[in-house]
Amino acid sequence: xxxxxxxxxxxxxxxxxxxxxxxxxxxxxxxxxxxxxxxxxxxxxxxxxxxxxxxxxxxxxxxxxxxxxxxxxxxxxxxxxxxxxxxxxxxxxxxxxxxxxxxxxxxxxxxxxxxxxxxxxxxxxxxxxxxxxxxxxxxxxxxxxxxxxxxxxxxxxxxxxxxxxxxxxxxxxxxxxxxxxxxxxxxxxxxxxxxxxxxxxxxxxxxxxxxxxxxxxxxxxxxxxxxxxxxxxxxxxxxxxxxxxxxxxxxxxxxxxxxxxxxxxxxxxxxxxxxxxxxxxxxxxxxxxxxxxxxxxxxxxxxxxxxxxxxxxxxxxxxxxxxxxxxxxxxxxxxxxxxxxxxxxxxxxxxxxxxxxxxxxxxxxxxxxxxxxxxxxxxxxxxxxxxxxxxxxxxxxxxxxxxxxxxxxxxxxxxxxxxxxxxxxxxxxx
Length: 430
Description:
By secondary structure, the chain is an all-beta fold. It has helices at about 10-15, 340, and strands at about 20-30, 40, 50-55, 55-60, 60-70, 75-80, 100-105, 110-115, 130-135, 145-150, 160, 160-165, 165-175, 180-185, 210-215, 220-225, 235-240, 250-255, 265, 270, 275-280, 285-290, 315-320, 325-330, 350-355, 360-365, 375-380, 385-390, 395-400, 405-415, 420-425.
């Protein structure tokens, strides 16, 4: 991961040797005695081949994570106790080192070495993985509750829990490789259920032209969508440079997404005469907007015809499949340099993650502007988003007990902030 601003890996091995790459050793211990733990040793553990304990990653898989130099090679093997007599017997066909030990070769990027105990087979795919389903119910009637049903739960209508901010979730275990139908609804009964089920867009109604499909990967995952849509909401940031303008009565934004006529939202000052406003929209949503330097329509900017809607004095926006920023000078088609203000003097020193390394919970304290909404993500080393949540406080926490031991990225974004910081998850203290 590359961080925005100064920062270092949570453990010295990663930042003292930045040229090294993440290396993960895995062993499948199915059917073996692991009561005394699972260990690894090899030429990478020190001159005397120190025996190191591995983490229990679940599903009989144990892992050890380190950093090694690209091109490194050497010997290793696994043990099911912390003494030399508890080593595995490596079959001759893969005992490439001295006819007794396994061999590793490190690539130019993250390297995973997967094995089965005393076997030349690679680590097996887990029989089940954790899957969390999330749906954004913004604008929907949830007075009867929010439910999920499909092949994922044998067509039993199951109530989802509220996460807050109109988000509902349900977790289960599913078999990797499965392709399963499901959809959301707002009733717990099959009576007249079609009145209460979502109508899924054709582009993601991949079963029977009506239902969603999840293709279960060989790892824990989160499936997040908007009710009836194919994806999650995206963050849109609107910015205006008010240099030379009177801002004594505030700066506001009006837009076609605002239901009430002549209602305008106050924008936040970022300093340097820059003001911003953030909102979440469905991908593909489009409309118009304009800036004002008072909360009355007569104080709206005059938008040049080159960048205005043909019929009204307003700018045009369209939401893509990713986060987007619309940044202009007041009354002008000239774009402003978003990077000039986006980080606004905030860096990773404004984020405190404790403990780090963490075991079952992390506590995050930030030093950002109050009364702001943050989009917080936890991302694994492959770039996969593990968690995606809206936060309305500078201090918050997450349960990470279901995360495998590894290195993760905490990413926080808002109208003023785009910062990432690494943290490490461990399962045992030893």
